[in-house]
Design goal:
544 residues; alpha+beta; Flavocytochrome C3, Chain A, domain 1; seven-stranded mixed beta sheet; 17 helices; globular; binds flavin-adenine dinucleotide
Length: 544
């Protein structure tokens, strides 16, 4: 028989990403005793692997910089993007609490945020802003975490020891030669940690300093219930022992998304999603725990989608590593085509929306029309920009399809050569005209910002003309889940019978976004998860 230990606490939090850590801090604010369970050996989840951007409309920092914003503008903007799928009351709660959550963290921890000059994802929509809503934490010096630093989840791609402002100033994301390598080395030696690791690191430090009882390698597996509601969590330790955490004031599920659980993805998600980029331990455990006691679900058809590519053999956490496809689809001199050898989307548009185009169904072929897809580019592109981890000047690797003509490229990809040649010719014509008549790429401020900003005449449109030609296979990926347990804006989990399950909360990717399918701007998922986590933690502590 496996040994059983039972411990008593006020609040138990499952998971250790930004939603969980913020929830724990908010509960501690009300002097609640908090136990936090994390199944992996590392704290931080996908949060630590992320860019650490947090999208909070109407935040104090933008006001301090003289940038106008208001609740009403944010509400109109988000409401349009939700497509009527979530209640106005929940949308309202989360938008209102976002700035309060940021103020709470800055008042009660050492984390400090600054604004970034990044536009909302639909900057031309009513209520959107061209900058100011996107916040990011200042970098952290790892040694501040003491022994816990070794327990901060390693990055998978966003591992640059710089602040986002420095990175943006260098304009080096797609131009690696512009990186200030000396500064980066200096920062590395000083132990600087930036982006998502900084966000998770600062929150972790505050939890450790604040006395949250953190248990690593402890996997929650079931909710404990009493007639009055949820009474805590049963977990299993890496040694195989059972741990029962009895929580009198609340159980907060924040175990991240379900995108690594193939069964759940195929059961619920619309369209193909083959390449998750998130923390591989996010297997929807907390979703399953909630379902087991009758919790309702929402938005399960969607994920936080992201076009993705993979380099064979690369792994992270024992699972295949996928990489974001961003510049490879939006910089001048590249375009995406489907198996009909045709363009199918404004490639420079926000990743979550581009990701959704993989769902398009071809009724004649009875197949997904845009899956698989390829980014097509030429020698000029290859000599100018990075492609995944490949730098200009590196030898061409086997995973990148290369051919001396478009005709040969098409034959290698098994798509129609004549159509591909025609698609490229039309694209080049529109580049010369300075306007993408087919998909309006470059029309939105957003299309221009995340491209080669500053480049003339267009930061996103450029000819594809000089052999050799290349094709990078692009897959539908996900950076997290926007569907999950149905909650209200305070994270209170709803039963399928329409009642609220007493003492049970969910936040972050474990819960369905109160904004439904809306992805308002850079940092949407983290900000939403942290805000609902903050409200859930405050509710358990009675300080909401
Ligand atoms: C490369 C990349 C960049 C991104 N950049 C951004 C960005 O800049 N801004 C933004 O808003 N979003 C970004 N995202 C998405 C964002 O990071 C996630 O949506 C977010 O981190 C989810 O946070 P969370 O707190 O819900 O869960 P996570 O941070 O994923 O943490 C969940 C944790 O729960 C643990 N867990 C799971 N099951 C159990 C269990 N049974 N028991 C105990 N623990 C469990 C997991 O091990 C994990 O540590 C990015 C994602 C990726 C992959």
């Amino acid at each position: 028989m496996t040994p059983v230990e039972t411990i008593a606490t006020d609040v138990v939090v499952v998971g250790s990403g930004a939603a969980a850590l913020t929830a724990a801090l908010a509960a501690r604010k009300g002097k609640a005793h908090v136990v936090l369970l994390e199944k992996s050996p590392f704290v931080g989840g996908t949060t630590a692997m992320s860019g650490g951007l947090v999208w909070v409309p109407n935040n104090r920092h933008m006001r301090d910089e003289g940038q106008a914003d208001s609740f009403d503008e944010a509400f109109r903007y988000i409401r349009r993007l939700t497509g009527g799928r979530r209640s106005d009351a929940d949308v309202r709660t989360v938008i209102e609490a976002g700035p309060t959550m940021i103020d709470f963290l800055e008042a009660s921890t050492e984390i400090r945020f600054e604004t970034l000059d990044k536009p909302d994802y639909h900057p031309e929509f009513d209520g959107a802003k061209a900058c100011g809503r996107c916040l990011v934490p200042l970098p952290l010096v790892g040694s501040l975490l003491g022994d816990w630093f070794d327990r901060l989840r390693p990055a998978s791609g966003f591992g640059v020891p710089l602040s986002w402002r420095e990175l943006d100033q260098m304009n080096g994301v797609f131009h690696p030669e512009r990186f200030d390598l000396a500064l980066m080395e200096e920062r590395s030696e000083a132990g600087f940690v930036g982006m998502g690791r900084a966000l998770a690191g600062w929150l972790l430090k505050a939890c450790v300093d604040g006395g949250v009882d953190i248990r690593l390698e402890t996997r929650a597996q079931a909710l404990l219930t009493e007639p009055s509601g949820v009474a805590g969590v049963e977990a299993v330790t890496s040694a195989g022992a059972t741990l029962r955490v009895m929580a009198t004031r609340g159980t907060i599920l924040a175990g991240g998304g379900f995108e690594w659980n193939e069964d759940l993805v195929s059961q619920f998600v619309a369209g193909p999603v083959s390449h998750p980029l998130s923390c591989p331990t996010n297997e929807g455990d907390t979703l399953t725990m909630g379902r087991a006691i009758g919790a309702d679900l929402a938005n399960m058809w969607d994920l936080w989608r992201f076009p993705t590519a993979a380099i064979p053999g690369e792994e992270y956490g024992g699972k295949p590593l996928s990489r974001m496809v961003a510049g490879e689809r939006s910089l001048p001199g590249t375009m995406m085509v489907n198996h009909n050898a045709k363009r199918f989307v404004n490639e420079a548009h926000p990743y979550a929306d581009v990701g959704r185009v993989f769902m398009t169904w071809d009724p004649v072929e009875s197949a997904y029309e845009n899956y698989p897809a390829w980014s097509i580019f030429d020698r000029d592109f290859r000599e100018t920009y990075s492609v995944l981890s490949l730098m200009p000047g590196d030898d061409d690797p086997a995973w990148l399809t290369r051919a001396d003509s478009l005709d040969e490229l098409a034959r290698t990809l098994d798509i129609d050569p004549q159509t591909l040649t025609g698609t490229v010719a039309r694209f080049n014509l529109m580049v010369d005209e300075g306007h993408d008549r087919d998909f309006r790429r470059g029309d939105s401020l957003f299309d221009r910002y995340y491209a080669d900003f500053g480049r003339e005449p267009s930061p996103t449109l450029g000819r594809i003309q000089r052999p050799p030609f290349y094709a990078l296979t692009v897959y539908p990926g996900a950076i997290g889940s926007s569907g999950g347990l149905l909650t209200d804006g305070h994270g209170r989990v709803r039963h399928v019978d329409g009642t609220t399950i007493p003492n049970l909360f969910a936040a972050g990717d474990a819960a369905a976004s109160c904004f439904g399918p809306a992805y308002g701007g850079p940092g949407g998922p983290l900000a939403h998860g942290m805000t609902v986590g903050y409200l859930a933690g405050s509710t358990t502590a009675g300080t909401d």
